[in-house]
Amino acid sequence: MPVLGFGTYALEEVPKSKAWEATKVAIDVGFRHIDSAYVYQNEEEVGKALREKMADGTVKREDIFYTTKIWSTFLRPELVRPALERSLKKLGLDYVDLFIMHFPLPMKSGDEILPKDASGEVIFDTVDLRDTWEISLLQALEKCKDAGLTKSIGVSSFNHKQLEMILSKPGLKYKPVCNQVECHPYLNQSKLLEFCKSKDIVLVAYSALGSHRHPNWVEKDSPYVLEDPTLKAIAKKHNRSPGQVALRYQVQRGVVVLAKSFSEKRIKDNFQIFDFELTPEDMKAIDGLNRNFRYAKLLL
Question: At which residues is there a site annotated Lowers pKa of active site Tyr (predicted)?
Fold first, then answer.
């Protein structure tokens, strides 16, 4: 798994074609780790970009590490493989490199992304998380891996206790290779990172720049990570942008980091993090910015 990945999520008002254009730019720039999901509703466009860059000789399939995720409405055992096959069909690919359980909260089964009742409340499924993993993921996902439809399986937004619950299952055939969580200087996830490292699980950081501000998830007066004075001072010292420093911070602490942008300039800037190094003092200063602040509050 390349340590720097390109994220493809966009707000609803962003044209789907932007995902196609941005993914091609990302590959041209050098990104080889592409992160997407069923719920992003743009895998056809991302897949088109991948196929075009393979067709023109820029990359081969084996050069690309592609991640997709199974959404919370498909966590029953009979729905898991069809969900992956649906993504593969949209992508035009034979397999994905990583198939992740997107969120540890099963919702009512069906094609509606956020099933709601008459009062507007989200309808959750009766499937227990332990059963979801043991039955759906440890059987259906394992079968997907054994069938060659995915190289590995993982989870997203799991906390320490949820990971322990999974890992404690007797006869575990495939443990999750990664846990994808919100992680940035204001939420550095140091304890979770330490636990994941002890279990040989890769921590993958999303919202690493703290710049995703979905109106349903983020309060309007939320702080901007990239405007933090400490981060800006370190960036100035290295003649870099605060965003590049925030991404480099994750790489140096052993975190795989996702960078999302549909701007060609920012995509190029986000990839330029391998020709400088933060000092131990820099790392300590950024560690000190942690305030356990979450942007993705998932106010469903």
Answer: 69
